[in-house]
Amino acid sequence: MQSIPRGERVVIGADFNGHVGEGNRGDENVMGRFGLQDRNVEGQMVVDFAKRMEMAVVNTFFQKRQEHRVTYKSGGRSTQVDYILCRRCNLKEISDCKVLVGESVARQHRMMVCKITLVVRKVKRTKAEQRTKWWKLRKEECCVVFREELRQAMGGQEVLSVDWTTTASVIRETGRRVLGVSSGKGKVDKETWWWNKEVQQCIQRKRLAKKKWDMERTEGSRQEYREMQRKVKVEVAKAKQRAYEDLYARLDSKEGEVDLYRLARQRDRDGKDVQQVRVIKDRDGNVLTDARRVMGRWKEYFKELMNEENEREQRVEEVTVVEQEVVNISKSEVRRALKRMKSGKAVGPDDIPVEVWKCLGEVAVEFLTSLFNKILDSETIPEEWRRSVLVPIFKNKGDVQSCGNYRGIKLMSHTMKLWERVVEARLRAEVSICEQQYGFMPRKSTTDAVFALRMLMEKYREGNRELHCVFVDLEKAYDRVPREELWCCMRKSGVAEKYVRVVQDMYESCKTVVRCAVGVTEEFNVEVGLHQGSALSPFLFALVMDRMTDEVRQESPWTMMFADDIVLCSESRKQVEDNLERWRYALESRGMKVSRSKTEYMCVNERDPSGMVRLQGAEVKKVQDFKYLGSTVQGNGECGKEVKRRVQAGWNGWRKVSGVLCDKRVSARMKGKVFKTVVRPAMLYGLETAALKKRQEAELEVAELKMLRFSLGVTRMDRIENKFIRGTTHVRCFGDKVREARLRWFGHVQRRD
């Protein structure tokens, strides 16, 4: 009760098993005079609770016959033990409260009703931001018109002005004029999307027949109205049938595949009770419901997160500054960066997506090359690029109302991301990252790291020797990287000072706003950490980790990193404990923070179950299995828990698209396609590295066939063979796909070597 905001209405109805008694002397604020019998101990507890919480016992305020006050009857005894409580300030909204004689909700208890008059306030909807319909550029005819209109807007020139402000303004204005702007109201799913002229005319005739019957009240006019009602039903059924046939015919075509996945997502959203979390808790755990306070809390959380550094040692290091000439950016570099950019991503505050540059082709390459060279010479990006929009994304674990369980992703200018990709390509060519780093490195993936750890554990199990593993977690790693340490690490890696100044400029005077479910917050500065959502940040983080851990790293697989996910392995518990302490000091002395609650320890072939690993005197949590990079590794070397998690991941994916998979009007072929692109990848993840037993492979096979049978509406009682199920959906045997995935990964490793 104490955690509920005072502005919220609270009504409690329950069997309190106590008598509050008749009369209210001394307790006028919490109860009326119309209770029953004498007060007992339990009744006094109800009254005391009401006093503490400033509530009122509602059913004692209304004068009723005794029969309408009795809530409990048993064995010839009649009493009042059920009560409705509300806040004292809301008592004026209640007009009546009584027991319904003859109605029972449970054995011996009678139904009590309460009439409350509420003034329903109109909820002010958050108006969505109007957006230019850039997605129309997917059509070639729209691209042609846009290019011509832009050329005319630039005064008939084929080359864009190198001034960013001028060019960006013209592009935005041309886009709005040619492609149009969304209303900002959001997409509404209408129940009458099948409506047509025939239905409209038929309903109009039915309305006229209804008016005629209301005026004449004759049997003939009544029959005419009934006939028109029947015709409307038939016409609506026909319209729906035709509309559904057109819809599913389109979904069954190659052009309708995108619509099919969109329909699946829409039906998944429609099936959820809550689609947006509009309330959040403050730092003390109290729920905030007011829109302004909710936005204030989001701003407070992210402002604190992105502007406060962890404690670190102040040190002066001798770093050699590399002053050297850098060559101008070429068109081929811009083309490669443009090719790596994906379409269909959310735009930043400048409202110019990468689709614009792809649409303009060589004109865009020419402009971007000139613009990037201008930035490289001046070491200053356009002011518009310094702004971003921060969107909180729930991590799908923990309390949904806690800000700490959200990851802030920045929506940045797409053109700045192109600039970052050009810079990143040059930095990767200059800097060598250690082999222990698997995250965001070319020709490496999570599969390589998981396989190396599984093989190491398998070898030690084979030799019946102990292997001790500590999985280190860093708190808010990306958001707490000290900027001064970043510049220092870049210089220590031999990066040319020109590029250091270019990256420094990207982080200079950055500002952001938080876009949440109830609106957009005020702008605030970002002075600590790397940009979440930036194209350059993953490489910069790998570079920082590389330099910070130079003196404590061991060779792979004894030390492995995937960005901020670190695993340390040793043959003895004392050795892994010492390594953990060395890593803690190396990281925390430079401004990073090792999480005491999320760092975990696991042992293979453990001989002393009571043994523990300590970090600064505190015990590190000991586990029998750990979810490493999305794949479960067990201390006993088995894969049983990983198989169960793959099955669960498959069912989770299946539920998300069940709105389409369980639709009888969607063809089996399309269901199989959706299944192979959404469900099966979730079940296959990480199994290239797992040594599955036949029983475990059969378990995955059975789960997959259950999903396919559900999708087709077929049960085992129908006596339909599995090969027919797979044949109609074009879904191959799961075991074959696992072996195919292993061979594909093996071929990738062979080509890399």
Automatic annotation (TrEMBL):
<dbReference type="GO" id="GO:0004523">
    <property type="term" value="F:RNA-DNA hybrid ribonuclease activity"/>
</dbReference>
<dbReference type="InterPro" id="IPR000477">
    <property type="entry name" value="RT_dom"/>
</dbReference>
<feature type="coiled-coil region">
    <location>
        <begin position="222"/>
        <end position="257"/>
    </location>
</feature>
<keyword id="KW-0175">Coiled coil</keyword>
<dbReference type="InterPro" id="IPR036691">
    <property type="entry name" value="Endo/exonu/phosph_ase_sf"/>
</dbReference>
<feature type="domain" description="Reverse transcriptase">
    <location>
        <begin position="374"/>
        <end position="633"/>
    </location>
</feature>
<dbReference type="InterPro" id="IPR043502">
    <property type="entry name" value="DNA/RNA_pol_sf"/>
</dbReference>
<dbReference type="Pfam" id="PF00078">
    <property type="entry name" value="RVT_1"/>
</dbReference>
<dbReference type="InterPro" id="IPR043128">
    <property type="entry name" value="Rev_trsase/Diguanyl_cyclase"/>
</dbReference>
<comment type="similarity">
    <text>Belongs to the beta type-B retroviral polymerase family. HERV class-II K(HML-2) pol subfamily.</text>
</comment>
<protein>
    <recommendedName>
        <fullName>ribonuclease H</fullName>
        <ecNumber>3.1.26.4</ecNumber>
    </recommendedName>
</protein>
